Amino acid sequence: MESGYRAAYDGWASNPEQFWAAAAEAIDWFTPIERVFDPDQGAYGRWYSGATTNTCYNCLDRHVERGRADQPAIICDSPITGTQTTYTYGALLEEVKTLSSVLQDLGVGRGDRVIIYMPMIAEAVMSMLACARLGAIHSVVFGGFAGHELATRIDDATPRVIIGASCGIEPNRIVPYKPMLDEAISLSEHKPEKCLILQREQHVAELDDARYVDMASAMQAARSEGRDVPCVAVEATDPLYILYTSGTTGQPKGVVRDNGGHMVALHWSMKAIYDVNPGEVFWAASDVGWVVGHSYIVYAPLLHGNTSIVFEGKPVGTPDAGTFWRVISEHKVAALFTAPTAFRAIKKEDPQGSLISKYDLSGFRTLFLAGERADPDTIEWAQEKLGVPVIDHWWQTETGWTIAGNPVGLGMLPVKLGSPTVAMPGYEICVLDDAGHAVEKGSLGNIVVKLPLPPGCLPTLWQAEERFHDAYLAEFPGYYKTADAGYVDEDDYLFIMARTDDIINVAGHRLSTGGMEEVIAYHRDVAECAVIGIADDLKGQIPAGFVVINSGVDRTNDEIEKEVIKLVRDQIGPVAAFKLVITVARLPKTRSGKILRGTMQKIADGQEWKMPATIDDPAILDEIADALASRGLKRA
Ligand code: COA
Ligand code: AMP
Predict the structure, then answer these.
(1) Which of 115, 209, 593, 624 lies 20 to 30 A from 395 at CA?
(2) Which has the closest alpha carbon to 263: 27, 70, 424, 515?
């Protein structure tokens, strides 16, 4: 059967407002939309102005009112603790109401910010939804970030309350959160009034100060009060959440997501892109700290009436490389969405896929991959071993949903390995040279999206309208800059080749090398440094730091390198996976003093490279190559 993609895309292109007005009918609005798109609001226009709504109402209440009360909403499967808990839509609504009343008592109301610093547990989802219910703006911080990163976010979001857990659990260790929270609060200028802490039995935190409130007791008290907390009507254009993501400096960007456009886009995507029907089980094996977790563990499945899996574990080691197959068969997962790195990890442990045959995967239809480039080897392996279509799709924290993909629900298009397929309705993708001229098909350039961005994409950065403009809109007027480079082929298939900034992608996690350099520069013995992302078979990329040590320092390189590694782990967090530091005598630079990071990376990855015309001293590149070779890394 021919795909309905072309008709859908052309329909959108010929009348975007009509397309998005039709999609908006799937959402319950408290007061109707006045303008589907208002070009005069915001930096590039705003969607669904005049309407009021509530995201929690659309995720929970309406499903309970319309017969889904007994359907599982979330299944929390934690191989790391050996527990499983299911919440039906009805039960989840009750928990969210209770938590909302606790938050209300802590003074949280419409427009207030709440930071959520929690592992993959039901309470993280409840906290997000309770904020949405009250019209408060949540900001989830990934548990793998350290206190310093949390402090940056506290100062930017200025939350009234932080909701945390006593610990996260990694396969090799328990991660107590309270010391990081304490450190963050002591570092930040802004102090949250209260911290609501969920105690986990694996590590109970001492709630030693009046700022800390025990979540279980507060919930118990609120439950016995039984107060009803209705959904607060918010503007469609009001922020639902802020999600911080790496920018080119240590100061992360606070991506803002609105309520109305977000719901419409995510709801539309569940059938059109992921091809799941309400009632089916959808699993995004990510973390609520990332955008994939926001969109596809929490909001999209619940908006659409699906059952979502909240998985606390890893693709390997919890307990083995068969965990994913167990979850799929046990919970009858119809579609799985994860990062390619998870499959590379499974493939490394179980290259024959022999654990797959232990499980009944007959209900499993499609595997979706995103978050980093999906290498053809991984796709082919997954296709062969699982016998289902493997769909790569490309998007960013900023967009919140697919820019380019293969819309299975509209009818699958042929897969081209290495390509996330084609632009989704809502996105006109162009490839421009640095001067802003369109390049020919097949030629590499800057990938941009013609404004306006569709519903669901960021309207701005949190209290940083100018930074939003400078980072995304200024370089190519009339377009949103994705900061990815790539090309479009003769069939309009997109190929994403590299970032155009200093962002690297480590195990599907987005990190700023500039941010790491800022941290390393604090080391008293480091004169200068450069961090680059080098290719890694498992994680896609890993960071490698090159440091030049001050003259006159009489400590060993090894000692200093270990300290630099510790500094990055302590300041940014273990998620940076920063484990490689190489001391060099000098760094290669242009005559104007710019460090040639791109050339260093090509040398490290064994790619072809050209001697930059502007290089100051070509001999330094040989020194870098020798330094890499001395660590067993490739050289060209
Ligand atoms: N809290 C605390 N620490 C965390 C953490 C969290 N939530 N998540 C990761 N870390 C730590 C890890 O324990 C590890 O620490 P270590 O250096 O002491 O070993 C470090 O951060 C790096 O973590 P990660 O990059 O996840 O590597 P890993 O070796 O633990 O696992 C994979 C490798 C490939 C199995 C894993 O990265 C994975 O499953 N990735 C899935 C990708 C994903 O979910 N991407 C999100 C976007 S879709
Ligand atoms: P994040 O904001 O963490 O989702 O990271 C977004 C970035 O990850 C993109 O700008 C790309 O560089 C990269 N990325 C995400 N998905 C893909 C994909 N399918 N193919 C290639 N790169 C991807």
Answers:
(1) 115
(2) 27
